[in-house]
Amino acid sequence: MKTEWIKKAPENVSVRPNLMDYEKAYHAFKxxxxxxxxxxxxxxxxxxxxxAIDRHANGALAEKNAxxxxxxxxxxxxxxxxxxxxxxxxxxxxxxxxxxGKGDRVFTLxxxxxxxxxxxxxxxxxxxxxxxxxxxxxxxxxxxxMKKGDAKALLTTRAIFExxxxxxxxxxxxxxxxxxxxxxxxxxxxxxSLSALMAQASDLFEIAPTDPEDMSILHFTSGTTGMPxxxxxxxxxxxxxxxxxKYVLDMHPDDIYWCTADPGWVTGTSYxxxxxxxxxxxxxxxxxxxxxxxxxxxxxxxxxxxxxTAPTAIRRLxxxxxxxxxxxxxxNLRLVHSVGEPLNPEAVVWGVEKLGLPIHDxxxxxxxxxxxxxxxxxxxxxxxxxxxxxxxxxAVIINHDSSSGVFEMAKTGQxxxxxxxxxxxxxxxxxxxxxERYQKSFINxxxxxxxxxxxxxxxxFWFIGRADxxxxxxxxxxxxxxxxxxxMEHPAVAExxxxxxxxxxxxxxxxxxxxxxxxxxxxxxxxxxLIGFGRQxxxxxxxxxxxxxxxxxxxxxxxxxxxxxxxxxxxxxxxGDISTLEH
Length: 583
Ligand code: ATP
Ligand code: MG
Fold this sequence. Notes:
Helices cover 29% and strands 24% of the residues. It is of the alpha/beta class. It has a domain at 471-571: GMP Synthetase, Chain A, domain 3 (2-Layer Sandwich). Strands 3-2-12-11-13-14-15-16-18 form a 9-stranded mixed β-sheet. Strand 14 (335-338), helix 14 and strand 15 (359-363) form a beta-alpha-beta unit. Helix 3 runs parallel beside helix 10 (267-278) and helix 4 (81-97) packs across helix 5. The protein starts with a strand and ends in a 12-residue tail after the last helix. Bound molecules: adenosine-5'-triphosphate and magnesium ion. The site of magnesium ion has 3 residues, from loops.
């Protein structure tokens, strides 16, 4: 990739970067200093709910809005830190009354309702384990995950329950209670009404001593490369959430923050619940699904200052012919972040042109629990790069091959697998019931991420592709991201997914699936033009030899292009686990 820097936001935008010299801060950093930010429980230990909600509710922020909820039907509700403390205490008491205790898994299957956010904090208070699922999952993925996660209780709505869960009850004998958010009364000893339970519960709850290593969240991965894994996280992860909230997301006390991710995906918990509340800032929650106009209105009307979203959403905004800077007042917005997939340089440039702000890419995984590599608020952005390692995070590129015993650190600019030194606080503590798989993700004291990347002379990391997605064509290794990003520079291309198609001569040939922007139609002429465009920009060895138009590319619920599915379909092979496929 070529090096192009965006050194600062355009003059008309007021950015308040951290006054941080990255190098100095990186070397001086100590996790012990982050520990000082937390109050600790009166009874001892560290609990997410206390640090995120109760300590603010007990202090100066009691009457400040913690949650501003924007319902899909236009309703708007506000909850202060004091209210969140009381309501979550009630929910913790509800769990106690139902016999749900420490370590027990409480699944949730709802849209982004206030009750979900209250329940999440209540679950942490009770030292139970939050397992959030996407409300749009069908019965099969729900069953798979609830079985694998040993679900003891489920919070959901009447409609979702009737349609998807009631038929599964016989297969879930361990499931003791289903709590229905919108049922006015209990149906049976097993199927209960949230409002009836909450009405009987006290709003006082003393959090039991919590070990920082106690399990807090069980998250299933996005399923981009195969069957989703159950990833175990602990209360101590808040060290990472607090620190990345400060240095990457640049949270300040008066910020209004909006993370668009659903809590069915790790971004929606680590940064859609925990990080903003650790910093005592107002968190916007939008119940509705993607809608460009509504999104711009939220940014404008709620006076959002920090916005955390994903490439899939940005590409959808780019597809439309809206001019947000002219049509909306986005003067309060000062920082935009993105995670989940590589952020095409085109998208960063679009941000500068259309939002007046560059978009800051950052990289992490369900397994890492928090942001690991980022374009910091305070640092220049390198177009197309994932950025610099977080403070306290040691990231390297490794070349390894178990069959030949090769294990070496890559040199600057050399490609290899991205690996991280274990020990960062939000590191996953296991794949649930898959100990062997967990052990296999470490080599010689390093956690292997499964992603290929390289580090440049400035210390910035560049994503090449998932190890599984790398294309081997006529002796070249091609990362799909580079090809996709180049195709996106063409004015007709909204989205591209690139795979290696088996070929008897070349091993694989590069094939691109392309979704077009509004106003463009697939044609033989355009196909030829795009092939020529690719050749001219990438050279014949790397450019796609085949192009196929699709109206939309298959994606996971968290918005990632499923290249393995494009490939399986291309080859007429079984599609594998598609439980997370967005329909
Ligand atoms: P599964 O592990 O089930 O296949 P998944 O890896 O997509 O699913 P997540 O943990 O949600 O599940 O996603 C993490 C992965 O997403 C990373 O390993 C990486 O491949 C990709 N990713 C996330 N952020 C970025 C980014 N900024 N740039 C490039 N890739 C990213
Ligand atoms: Mg993964």
